[in-house]
Structure formats: C-alpha cells, structure tokens
C-alpha cells in the first residue's frame, strides 16, 4: 500500500506540476499571434487582386 508520506509527496508534486503547466499555458497564450483562417484567406485574396491589378 501507499503510505501517507508517499501520498503527500505525490499530491505536492502533482499540484506543483499543475501550477507550472498553468503558468506556461498562460505565457504561451498571451504571447501567441492570432491568425484566423478567415484573415489568412482574405490576405491571400487581397494579394491575388493586387497582383492582377498591377499587370
């Protein structure tokens, strides 16, 4: 069986791991650039239209 000390150490480890993952997730989310598929599609269409206009 698992002892109380082992259970305590496991709980502390999992809690610290969860907090680290939460901080990393928020860091990545705040610093991410947002490019929706609609924005990319509109940008490609605008470039194609500009290319046709310049010819």
UniProtKB/TrEMBL annotation:
<keyword id="KW-0735">Signal-anchor</keyword>
<feature type="transmembrane region" description="Helical">
    <location>
        <begin position="7"/>
        <end position="28"/>
    </location>
</feature>
<keyword id="KW-0812">Transmembrane</keyword>
<keyword id="KW-1133">Transmembrane helix</keyword>
<dbReference type="InterPro" id="IPR036330">
    <property type="entry name" value="Ost4p_sf"/>
</dbReference>
<protein>
    <recommendedName>
        <fullName>Dolichyl-diphosphooligosaccharide--protein glycosyltransferase subunit 4</fullName>
    </recommendedName>
</protein>
<comment type="similarity">
    <text>Belongs to the OST4 family.</text>
</comment>
<dbReference type="InterPro" id="IPR051307">
    <property type="entry name" value="OST4"/>
</dbReference>
<dbReference type="InterPro" id="IPR018943">
    <property type="entry name" value="Oligosaccaryltransferase"/>
</dbReference>
<dbReference type="Pfam" id="PF10215">
    <property type="entry name" value="Ost4"/>
</dbReference>
<keyword id="KW-0472">Membrane</keyword>
<keyword id="KW-0256">Endoplasmic reticulum</keyword>
């Amino acid at each position: 069986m698992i002892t109380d000390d082992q259970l305590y150490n496991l709980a502390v480890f999992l809690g610290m791991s969860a907090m680290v993952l939460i901080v990393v997730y928020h860091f990545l989310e705040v610093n991410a650039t947002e490019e929706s598929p609609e924005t990319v599609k509109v940008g490609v269409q605008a470039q194609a239209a500009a290319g046709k206009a310049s010819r």
